[in-house]
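Whether sequence alone determines local backbone shape is best considered at the level of individual chains. We regard such an encoding as a compact summary of how the chain folds. The sequence in question and its structure tokens are set out directly beneath this paragraph.
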Amino acid sequence: MSIHVAITRKVLPGKEEEFKEALRQFLGESFIHGGVHGAAMITSLPGSDSNEIGILRTFADEAERDAFYNSKLFRDWEAYASKLTEEPVYRPLTGLEAWFRYPLPPPRWKMAVATLCGVFPTSLLLSFTLGPYLQNLPMPLRVLIIAVCMVALLTWVVMPVITRLLKKWLRPS
């Protein structure tokens, strides 16, 4: 299963253009590492005072992610980038934000349809499998148990499959 990582870097004043150009080059070079499946730079709107740059990376799996971050290519980049930015913040994307991680997100109505395709069968499954065992519990507790199971199944099982199956339809043309 693909692994997604979001990185935020605050660029030092006066170093913005140098960092952006170096990052563009590094993003291209990073595809030499076979486990890198995607990379994107997110910048603020022109005229904004923000000096934050976002980087989204997609890896084939955890082993490929770890191999990339331990590679000489990445270590050399990190040594150079650390002279142009503050300490970066790395955040794995594992929940809803990773389901629809594309350079351009699909329209919201498509995300809603894809989510419904996951929620409806999962709720039916949970109602039939857990419902009979939970019927004597107070309603708030029943709903909590179903909700916890629903979120776990959607996050780690159902939505990764749905987004993979609907990948071509979800991506804007």
In short: The first strand starts at residue 3 and ends at 10. The chain is about 55% helix and 15% strand. The mean pLDDT is 85.
